[in-house]
Structure formats: structure tokens, C-alpha cells
Amino acid sequence: PYFSNADPTVKRSSGFLAPTVGHDSNLGFVSKIPYYYAISPSADLTVEPWFMTNTPPLMFLEYRQRTDNGRFIIDSSITKGDPNQTGEHALDEDVRGHIFGTGRFDLDDDWKAGFDLARATDDTYLLRYHFSDLDTLTSDAFIQGFNGRSYAEADAFAFQGLLPQDSPGVSPLVLPFLQYQRVGEPNRFGAYYTLDASALSIFRTRGEETRRLSSTVGWNLPYTAPAGDVFNFRLQLRADGYDVSPGLDPTGTTFLPVNGGTGRVEPLAYVEWRYPFVRSSGTVQELIEPIVSAVATPNGGNPQKIPNEDSRNVEFDDTNLFSIIRFPGLDRYEGGERMSYGVHGAVYGLSGGYTDVLVGQSLRARDPSTKPARSVS
Q1: How far is CA 173 from the centre of its chain?
Q2: CB of 94 closer than 8 Å to CB of 115
Q3: Among 242, 247, 271, which Cα is nearest to 340's?
Q4: What letters, b where the CB count within 10 A reaches 16 and e where it falls short, cover 212-235?
Q5: What is the pLDDT of residues 329-366, one digit of tens each?
């Protein structure tokens, strides 16, 4: 018998890595024996068999590679069905496994691309073998470009729900999701325009399908008064067009008979005032800033024909107290007049530490039907 090991001058060398041994209440005693294979100066592979007393063996693989313009990592596993688990995957001959991956690539100075891959053979596999505790797996591919004051991106998304109530037929396939943003050059008064445009197409095998075009044109004028208070004025016009095919709603519980096209056009005016008071006190800087904002836009803006795909998770908190629209997506529009006010206080230390506090309230001219449940606004 003999043993060999690379000396400290060797940066990468193929060979066995340190094994691990442990115990799990479901898997039993677990031993992992990884082998590292240095394929080339820019690629490697780790092969790690798992041996468990309560379940069949499992093979885990991780492949990594650097390319001329980026990098990617793929890891996956495969095993036979777990005989100690009842239900869909109780037979030894059932194949179970997963694949995760991520990649990022610089195409040139302006364009980047990448992908994220996450899939599993069944709902409980990742949790049982401690690979992940996620409720939803998201896979996506994208390309994005930056040029001056413009930004463009094209995405595709696929989702796999791992909760018992998730239905594969209702999970959306987003292909494509196109976005374009541009911020104009400020004129001599500091005013500038903005343009936000997007196109979205959502497919389902047995659910509602949606096609959406959206654009928002805005004009902004920031202004700092001689006394030091800061104003921001904004005028914008938003237009959304929808084409909807009937099916189940995004929760998979209610059939929506909506069919055909619809749209909306919403003008909006916004003004915000801030008066920051700043002083230095020893090793810290202190800030006290009263803030007042007001929004004026027509009431409503949410016809029943418009589905709600991206604005279901709504939270009213300090991060969006002074936001123009508080919904996270575009499918819901916050109409009506409202005013928000508050005081922002902060203490910043020279070493980088800070304490930040915001207290405020939002008042509405009327109570909109789109306000989230239990909201205090």
C-alpha cells in the first residue's frame, strides 16, 4: 500500500478529497467520498458518490468551466427511488434527481448573457437529500445590454412549484419578456425624460395565457431651492395593452372566462418635497429630513379583463411609502389621489455603520379596491 499527495507548489491536481461521514434521521448513516478531476486549466469535475444505510446510493456531480468570456457551473444528482418513502416515488426502479446550473458571459463591452437552471424530478427530492429548501424552482435565460443612458434585456422564465397545492399545468412559461429603458440627457434646467417599455408573453398548458405590451413616458424636473429644500416634479403617461386567453387564474382554482383584448391609458402627476438637515457630531453625521409627496391620477385603472400575474404579493411599508406606484409589477395600477408625509432620520458613522429610521403615513382621497388586505394606508 502507498499514499501520494501533491506538494504545496501544485495548484490543481486530480485525486480524492476528504470524505465526510454523518447521520440523518431519514437517510441513516451517510458517507460521501468525493473525487476531484482536473480536466484542463479551465475545467474540472467533482464526482461524489453517497452511500446511505436507509436509501439506495446517490451519485452527485459538479462540473465547472471558465470560458474566454465567462464561466458556468452545473451540478446534478441521480439515485433510485427511496423504498422508505410512500407515495409517487416508493419503488426502487423510480429514478430521482436534480440539476442546478448558473452561467454568466460577457459578449462584448455592452452586452452580457447568462442562465440559471433549477429542476428536480419530484416535489420532495431536494428537501429529503438536503440540496435545497426552496418552494419554487426558477430557471431563466437572459441577454442584457447597456449603451449610454439606455438599457435593454430579453428574458425567458420557467417555474417548478414544489408545494403539494402546486399544479404543473398552471405554472407559467414566460417567453419572451422584453424590456427597454432610456433616460434622456438633462436640459439646461435639469429636466429630463424617461421611457420604459416592455413586452410579455405567458403560456400555460391548462391555465390562462396572457400577452402584454406596456410603455411609460415620463418627464422629470428636479429642483433644489436656495434654502436647500429639494423638489422633484414628474409627469407621466402609461399605456398597457392585453390579449388574454381563457383558463384558470394564476392560483389554479378559478376558471376565468376572460377572452380577447383590452387596455388602459393612465396619466399621472407627482410632486415630492424634502428638506434635509445635516450636521456632524464627533465621529458621526446626523440627518433629519421631513418628506411630503402627492400623486394625482384617475381613479380605477384595473378593468376585470386585465389579469393579475405580477402584482399579487403587495406590501405597504417604509420602502414604498413615497413610491409613485406601490405594486411590484405592471398588472395592477394604483389610481386616485393620495398624499404621503413622514420624517426620515439617520446617523452615519465614519467606520461605515449607520442607523436609519423612517416614520410616515399615507392618506387617500378614497379607498381603492386594489388596496392590499390589512393595509394601514
Answers
A1: 15
A2: no
A3: 271
A4: bebebebebbeeeeeeeeeeeebe
A5: 999 999 999 999 999 999 999 888 999 999 999 999 87
